[in-house]
Amino acid sequence: MADHELRVGVIGVGLMGTDHAHRIARRLANARLVAVSDPDTARAQAVAGLYDGVRAIDDVLDLVDDDDVDAVVIASPGPVHEEQVLACLEAGKYTLCEKPLTTESASSLRLVRAERDRGKPLIQLGFMRRFDPEYVRMKELLSTGRLGRTLVVHNTHRNKDASDSFRSEMIVRDSLVHEVDVARFVFDEEIEEITVLSPAPSGHSPRGVVDPQVAIFRMTGGGVVTNEVFIRSQVGYEVRCEVVCERGTVIAGRPWGGLYSTAVGEADGSWGGAVPADFRARFARAYDLELQAWVDACHRGEVVGPSTWDGYAATAVCEAGLKSLATGAPVPVDLADVATLG
Length: 342
Known about the structure:
Layout: E1 6-11, H1 15-26, E2 31-37, H2 41-48, E3 55-56, H3 60-65, E4 71-74, H4 81-91, E5 94-97, H5 105-118, E6 123-125, H6 133-144, E7 150-158, H7 168-187, E8 191-197, E9 213-219, E10 224-230, E11 238-245, E12 248-252, H8 279-282, H9 284-300, H10 308-327, E13 331-332
Parallel strand pairs: 1-2, 1-4, 2-3, 4-5, 5-6, 7-10
Antiparallel strand pairs: 7-11, 8-9, 8-13, 9-10, 11-12
């Protein structure tokens, strides 16, 4: 692998997978897109046809086993991740798996154990905010200790719109999961309890969908994290994180100076500059850095970034969050004892 470009196959070429395929083919160093696969074979063939020498492989497991594929990016829906990640582990191939690791904590824990049984890490989780330059600088500043202990974190996560099929539970499992990882990243500890509150829904939300949602995490060290997730804000893609410490605060994702407003009719989707339409624009640099770090680590025979344990922990928190969504009550997070995993 160290003697040639890393030959990468992409599983799932929806919005995220297609974006990653283009990134690998056009923007990364020491990597080459060689294959794509998707249950929608016509879509896979169309994406493959955009680049010279890229094959569309009908069966995703055939892509994993292909001798011309050194490493795999999984950008398929969460419910099929367990089978695909397990296949990559069995093939001994480095893998970047987009979140979630799986949609249930039990299946995520099986993958943690399967990887540890192999005796060598192979899987990196796609929590790209850990690679965003502002989040990286924020973490570095907190790590110096100049601001004292971290006490409170406030996360904001807004999308412009979503399809009617994106229901309340998906907001927890597929959107809030990013804030779960940010909280664990910032505090360097686990979330022990989650409460998901249901404000009055937006008039743009389909009937029966709770949007926006407000989630509160309690960390094992006593810190508190507040999270607003609003996926039909009608404005654009806004993601921010404010960390409150003993001797100051730090904010990542604050793109303005002076008064900020996104009031429709006054500053429709702008603040004196445009509000990004979706995540691909807001975190383009983070995705580039994330995949380049993954490629470089593959060449070194290492794994960097979020691990299968990070994926499992995030899934376990979201699983508790779904229970809280149904009741509005705090729910403890049930995490396995890492010492028992070998």
